[in-house]
Amino acid sequence: MESPVATTNGHSAPNTPVQTPSQSSDDSASDGERENELTPEQREGAFSNFRISQITIDKLKARGVSYLFDIQVKSFNPVYDGEDVIAQARTGTGKTFSFAIPLVEKLQKEAEQKIRGRPPKVLVLTPTRELAIQVAKDFKDVSKRLVISCFYGGSSYNPQIDATRTGIDILVGTPGRIKDHLQNHKLNLSQLKHVVLDEVDQMLDMGFAEQVEEILGCSYKKDSASNPQTLLFSATCPTWVYDVAKKYMRPSCKHIDLIGKKTQKAATTVEHLAIACHWSQRAAVIGDVIQVYSGSHGRTIVFCETKKEANELSLNASIKQSAQSLHGDIPQKQRETTLKGFRNGVFEVLVATNVAARGLDIPEVDLVVQCSPPKDVESYIHRSGRTGRAGRTGVCICFYQRKEEDQLRYVENKAGITFRRVGVPTANDIIKSSSKDAVRFLDSVPVTAINYFRESAERLIGERGAVDALAAALAHISGATSLEQRSLLNSDVVRFIFTHIHTLGTSKDGNHVKAQTVQSSGSTVDNSSQL
After folding, report:
1. What is the pTM of this model?
2. What element of type H or E holds 15?
3. Neighbouring-strand partners of residue 365
4. Is the pLDDT at 497 greater than 50, yes or no?
5. CA neighbor of 330 nearest in space, from 321, 339, 317, 343
6. What CATH class is the domain 69-257?
7. Are the beta carbons of 185 and 222 closer than 8 angstroms?
8. Would you list the domain boundaries of the chain?
9. Rg of the chain over CA atoms, in angstroms?
10. What CATH number was assigned to the domain covering residues 270-421?
11. Whether the Cβ atoms of residue 181 and residue 151 lie closer than 8 Å to each other
12. CA dist., res. 124 & res. 104, Å (int)
């Protein structure tokens, strides 16, 4: 049986004991002994330290949350006590629960009569539809008696209007759709007590600032003590955000900064790699990178700059794993289906534009690939933060051309990271990764099926020997009948052809399967590979 792991937002943090002071134990260990087994983070984040009801604790445990993470610890009391808060913490550290848990506790404790048609007490604004859906789900997972609604574009107006008629306690949404309902006089925000801007740097930027100001104008009056509590959260808070936010915040607002002047702004659980590659070879190399760093079973997100590029790459034959694209031109229902499929492991590679970069909490993403250095450092931090979440480790690989070296160094300098420059995967790297996958595939073969192949296997072992017979079978399973080797300097292709298993012959000593070589990119390579 595997040792338990602590999780937040449903994701595991390896090698961290789950048990907290509030949990019971069937063993005979004393409370003092159990206390000594806890890490300092677990002791500080123990549920018993906070005003959290047993109902909410049970719901958190059902989500796999056994203690509060650092940002949740620092923000719980200020949020619960009604202070304005502006908080910054690295990606993947549990920011949504930082405001969701104390707000849910506060509203459930008030236990007001549920009047039909009541306007929302809490408004949460997010920059993307996908993030709005996720935040609403997080609220629902930790609440019992509250009505949580989610309004976003691309979905029908009628169910949302019906929700306002029934009554809402917590409303999560995107600015465009919230603004539409306000203009159509279908939504009343005059009774707001709490306002949350998630990914605040994007919410107050040029694209959303006007809409946000119009929405909040319904509830905010200049220098009024009756203004709603304002909560601003993000992984990136440039200095201008603090200046713009002043119009919504009380002078006594609480600043929580878990990054501060630390050099590294990106997640510390992510390894950052960079590969120099000409754009003409990029799609093929990305396929090799996914195979080597994530394998056939791992989850990968590939970020592209354009919708066209995302569509083309998701269909590219170089990516052997099943892949789907996600971007703004895809109908909302399909976007939701795609994200659900990726979360549930229906397919392994998500090729997306920036729509998937902010806030999305997708479990166990092993690899993030960025097709080119992003135009701004904040984008890199948020994209790379889709992996290495909740204590897990991850890898982010950024492709660049030689002319983009300065841009890459700029990201290093501003994000406080150092890219480890690596070459494109070699044929040997791909063979090793593919063989590991092939071995895992063998574990899934039922015994009843194996029995049908015993006679052929025994004959093959007699003819070739056990090692060569199994090596040839693994080569065929892994698809290693044709591999491309690329120059470590310029990614030019040199192809290695492995004879197909049905025509495999042995050398005179019966020990090696030879790799035939062909001429490619104007060069001849003489090589052989031992499987």
Report:
1. 0.68
2. none
3. 299
4. no
5. 339
6. alpha beta
7. no
8. 1-67, 69-257, 270-421, 427-524
9. 27
10. 3.40.50.300
11. yes
12. 13
